[in-house]
Specification:
By secondary structure, this protein is of the alpha+beta class. It has one domain. The protein contains four helices and four strands. Strands 1-2-3-4 form a four-stranded antiparallel β-sheet. The protein is globular and about 50 Å long.
């Protein structure tokens, strides 16, 4: 087992020893939650709503916006009370499903992916419970083409989904090689 780069997630997937999987899961979820909530606190404290602070002109800004919907503001026009309850319930069901997957999985890459997704989901549900919407502040763009604003929790979810895609891609290749 090496700790450098993708080799650490070597295929075929290495299994966790049962005594160290849950500290790993807790550490990942904890780091995501602390970074997410701390950065959102800083944005709330230091950037007024809708202000834009250029970081890398023509490419990256910090801003302060709220998202009432899901990714890309989906479902943002639903009635407030129903929307909040809907997103909170969906998130809680998803986190419960992720917990089951984490318990059943012993493969490092998958446990990491599920933990990142769970941490991001909990980070955003905290905002939904507190504000009824999610605080977003990272804004990438090129010229007049803007990616929707997002936050640390969204990033963790995206990285987790990316790791799942990598696992599916390599697992399929391994299955073909073994056949």
């Amino acid at each position: 087992m090496t700790l450098s780069g993708i080799q650490w997630f070597a295929f075929p997937a290495k299994e966790f020893l049962l005594n160290n999987k849950y500290p790993w899961v807790g550490t990942i979820i904890g780091i995501v939650l602390v970074l997410d909530q701390f950065t959102k606190y800083l944005v709330e404290k230091h950037i007024r709503m809708y202000d834009v602070i250029p970081v890398v002109p023509g490419f990256f800004n910090l801003t302060h916006v709220r998202n009432k919907g899901a990714a890309f503001s989906l479902f943002s026009t639903m009635p407030d009370g129903f929307r909040s309850a809907f997103f909170i319930m969906v998130t809680l069901v998803a986190v419960a499903a992720l917990a089951v997957l984490i318990i059943k999985t012993r493969e490092r890459l998958l446990v990491t992916a599920f933990s990142l997704i769970a941490g991001g989901a909990v980070g955003n549900v905290i905002d939904r419970i507190r504000f009824g919407e999610v605080v977003d502040f990272i804004q990438w763009y090129v010229k007049s083409y803007y990616w929707p604003s997002f936050n640390v929790a969204d990033s963790a979810i995206s990285v987790g989904v990316g790791l799942l895609a990598i696992d599916m891609l390599f697992r399929k290749q391994d299955a073909v090689k073994q056949a």
